[in-house]
Amino acid sequence: MATGRSERNSERKAQRRIARSEKRAARGGSGKTRRAIGDFIIHKRSIVPNMITMSNMTMGFFAIIMASRGDKWSLAVAGIMIFLGTVFDALDGAVARAMHVASPVGVQLDSLADGIAYGIAPAVIAYQAYLAELPSGGSFIDFGMFIALIYPICAIYRLARFNVGAEEDDHRRFKGLPSPAAGVIIASIPVLMIPDFLSVLKVTLVIPWQGFIAIYVVVSLLMVSHVDYSKILPDIHRLGGKPMLILTLILGILCLGLLSVWMVFGFLAVYTTVGMALYAIKIFRRRKEAATGA
Question: Domains of the chain: which residue ranges?
Answer without folding.
Answer: 14-44, 45-293
